[in-house]
Amino acid sequence: MISVIIVNFNGRDYLELCLSSLALQTFRDYEVIVIDNASSDGSVEYLKAHFPDVILVRATENLGFAGGVNAGIRVASGEYIMTLNNDTRIDPDCLFHLMEVMEPDDSVGMTAGKMLFFDRRINSTGICISRSGAAWDRGMYEEDMGQYDRIEEVFGPCAGAALYRRQMLEEVGLFDEDFFLYMEDVDLAFRARLLGWKCVYTPYAHVYHIHGGTAGVGSDLAVYYGNRNVLWYVLKDFPVRILITSLPWIIGRNLAVIPYYMMKGRGWAILKAKIGALRGAPAMLRRRKMVRQTVPDGEVMRFILTWSSVGRYRDVAGTV
């Protein structure tokens, strides 16, 4: 069974499109769990009236994306967990194709599909990362010309629409709730990779995404959490040798984004992000002790690119 987990915060206007597309799935062995993060827009009442079969978990406060997904996992019955943004619509064969590449291979712990914007440009075909810690969605904003139309291994999936094997989550651990929003899927994928789990991308599982429907694209919220967490996951997850040799890129990028966002009118948000990142750095360095590694550094290094565009890093949860 697949447990589809949707985190909702004041997203009532998106729920019908998302949940109706789930109802049309050709793969029928699934349940839908909605975690409502203390919405004030009538989302809960709407779900009870129009989608009574959905398993509804009401949080008394906003748990963020990471905490919301974890709350859903704890009540889920499936041996597979799908995380799905509330501002999405999925094709009828989406669950089938995600399972098609995961189920036959026990080493595959994560599956990524082809996420598209509603204008059919690419949103994500898997996560990419660089030595600076910058993380972005492969193919972001490109026209879909078939350039990503083969099944292949990628570093990890965008949690806006990702399938995870529960066995992997039990071994690796759930999403880090201290991240709250953004980069939590990069952190999880990195921890999984360090234990030898693979991620496979399939171009046949189509998801259409409004993008930033809850937090907004380039908002202060997105700038803050994205830029804080981009340093946190590096300090927590990069193997020692990779971390030390990557310091010039890590320091350079974290300094370079400050004037970049100041010029975009987000100066206060970026400064708060970097202050928050530094304050939390000691805790993330201590948390390294809980991150286990069973594969050689080369197994993750083959996915870590040397350079990336400053403007293409991830600044929204589950998207770039």
What would you note in describing this structure?
With 320 residues, the protein is an alpha/beta fold. The protein has one domain: Alpha-Beta Complex (Spore Coat Polysaccharide Biosynthesis Protein SpsA, Chain A), CATH 3.90.550.10. The chain is 39% helix and 22% strand. The strands form two sheets. Strands 1, 2, 3, 4, 5, 6, 7, 10, 11 and 12 form a ten-stranded mixed sheet that branches. It has a three-stranded mixed sheet with strand order 9-8-13, with no helix packed on it. The two termini are 30 Å apart.
Reconstruct the topology from this structure.
Blueprint: E1 2-8, H1 12-23, E2 30-36, H2 43-50, E3 55-58, H3 64-75, E4 80-85, E5 88-90, H4 94-102, E6 108-117, E7 122-124, E8 127-130, E9 135-137, E10 152-154, E11 161-165, H5 166-172, H6 184-194, E12 198-209, H7 220-237, H8 240-245, H9 247-263, H10 267-287, H11 297-301, E13 304-305
Parallel strand pairs: 1-2, 1-4, 2-3, 6-12, 8-13
Antiparallel strand pairs: 4-11, 5-12, 6-7, 6-11, 8-9, 10-12
Helix pairs in contact: 6-7, 7-10, 9-10
Taken as a percent bin, the fraction of beta residues is 15-25%
State the distance separating the first and last CA atoms.
Answer: 30 Å
As residue ranges, the low-confidence spans are 309-320
The proportion of residues forming helix, as a percent range, comes to 25-40%
Question: What class, by secondary structure content?
Answer: alpha/beta
Sheet with most strands: 10 strands, mixed
> In the CATH scheme, what's the topology name?
Spore Coat Polysaccharide Biosynthesis Protein SpsA, Chain A
CATH 4th-level superfamily: Spore Coat Polysaccharide Biosynthesis Protein SpsA, Chain A
Oligomeric composition of the shown chains? single chain
- The SSE order reads EHEHEHEEHEEEEEEHHEHHHHHE
